[in-house]
Design goal:
With 437 residues, the protein is an alpha+beta fold. The protein has 13 helices and 25 strands. The longest helix has 13 residues.
Length: 437
């Protein structure tokens, strides 16, 4: 099929669309893929995963577990098999390269802290700027030996016997929670993690899928050390954070009709559907199923004829929507009453300063926008034109502004578009397929 987005090296030109429609199947959930690969490595037996994420970040996790002695291969049907070597991993002969993946680095640190060998974790320039003290501190309280480089990667870990702790996370983070659960699985005693805002629970559900027992309360999760894991076979649901771009594209065009097959609808991740519904989008969920504790369903999205209203995203909602905020901001100008984002300071220390990039790129397209330390005010009722977009090498910025470009007048050039492959290699092909011009 002819592409309506033209690609030159690291840039993609997006042409405006008249509406969006069709059926899409979103690649496997990144968060679940990371956790399944790591747990498969320390489980007994061979695990098999269908629809494992093709994201570069998840490839980083697979390559790290391979260096730890857990061989993996891709089967003819596209499934991934991981050979468990649990519970003891093999010391690698070289540093473990986590690429751009904070998930790999933070969660693997928890997995390795209780192993008896020495490990070094490295990452690319972007990952090497991201904060790692948030995992070092609680793991050190358990008795782990982690050395950071001025609060960042490279990380050196000297494995040690761990003791359970009762820990309250100062910043809600699913990666930190999962790292501590992975460490707690191998510690003596029962580790409890408490959080003021409930973060995504893929770590807990994955541990249960592999046979571990956990205790949950409203604001805490506990795991007893010394439990053995067993291999599983699982189909990984479509990634709702990746679907977010297409959900927002469908909400942007009156008359749109987009259907998502086998989409992950975990309640700790599906907040975006609530926000889009509040904005006026029509969302239907069909065929809801439970797969290894994860909810999966078919989702249909239509935009309201009169367009979206407006909303404020703040407090706990900002933490739950942290990955989806860039695309919500990108469609904000076309809402009637605008989108206001607060309590999202965490966006400043992602793969880029996302608040600054969102503001700069919206202005490049002719939008009024006000930037705050912890968020943005994006007035509604605006008309945007095509422009040159600087993604800052950040996959979510590149994809968010590709969605905005569909509704702009004139073509939009996305610089650094290759960064989309970090989380969603198939993104531009799918965008072409749903855009009706």
């Amino acid at each position: 099929m002819a592409h309506d987005s033209t690609r030159e090296g690291a840039s993609v030109t997006i042409r405006p669309a008249s509406t969006v429609g069709g059926v899409v199947r979103i690649p496997g959930d990144k968060s679940i893929s990371h956790r399944y690969a790591m747990l498969a490595a320390i489980a007994e037996g061979v695990s098999r995963f269908h629809n494992f994420s093709a994201a570069r970040d998840c490839a980083s996790t697979l390559n790290c577990v391979a260096k730890l002695g857990s061989a993996w291969k891709q089967l003819d049907d596209g499934a991934i098999e991981v050979q468990g070597v649990g519970p003891r991993l093999r010391p690698p002969s070289e540093p473990l390269d986590c690429g751009n993946s904070g998930s790999t680095m933070r969660m693997l640190s928890g997995l390795l802290a209780a192993q008896s060998d020495a490990f070094t974790l490295v990452g690319d320039a972007s990952l090497s700027r991201r904060p790692m003290e948030r995992i070092r501190k609680p793991l050190a309280q358990m008795g782990a030996h982690l050395e950071l480089t001025e609060g960042h990667a490279p990380i050196t870990i000297q494995g040690a016997p761990l003791t359970a702790i009762d820990y309250t996370t100062p910043i809600p983070s699913a990666q930190v929670k999962t790292a501590l659960l992975f460490a707690g699985l191998q510690a003596s005693g029962t580790t409890t993690i408490r959080e003021s805002v409930r973060t995504r629970d893929h770590g807990e559900l994955a541990l249960r899928a592999f046979g571990a027992t956990l205790e949950r309360t409203l604001d805490s999760v506990s795991i007893a050390g010394g439990q053995a894991l067993r291999a599983i076979e699982a189909a990984i649901p479509g990634d709702i954070s990746s679907a977010a771009f297409f959900l927002c594209a469908a909400a942007l065009f009156p008359g749109s009709n987009l259907i998502f097959d086998a989409l992950g609808l975990n309640p700790t991740r599906a907040t975006l559907l609530d926000v889009l519904t509040a904005l006026g989008a029509h969302i239907g969920v069909l065929n809801l199923e439970d797969k290894h504790g994860e909810l999966v369903g078919v989702v249909q999205v239509n935009a309201p004829p009169q367009g979206l209203t407006g909303t404020t995203i703040s407090g706990a909602l900002s933490a739950q929507l942290i990955d989806e905020l860039p695309v919500l901001a990108a469609i904000g100008p076309w809402t009637q009453n605008g989108i206001r984002i607060r309590d999202a300071k965490e966006l400043r220390v992602k793969e880029s300063d996302r608040i600054a990039l969102i503001a700069a790129n919206l202005r490049a397209m002719g939008a009024d926008v006000e930037e705050f330390d912890d968020g943005l005010d994006i007035p509604g009722g605006q008309t945007l034109h095509g422009a040159e977009i600087d993604s800052g090498g950040d996959h979510r910025i590149a994809m968010a502004f590709s969605v905005a470009a569909l509704r702009a007048t004139g073509d939009t050039l996305i610089r650094g578009a290759e960064s989309a492959a970090i989380s969603f290699p198939e993104f531009f092909d799918l965008l072409d397929r749903i855009a009706e011009r």
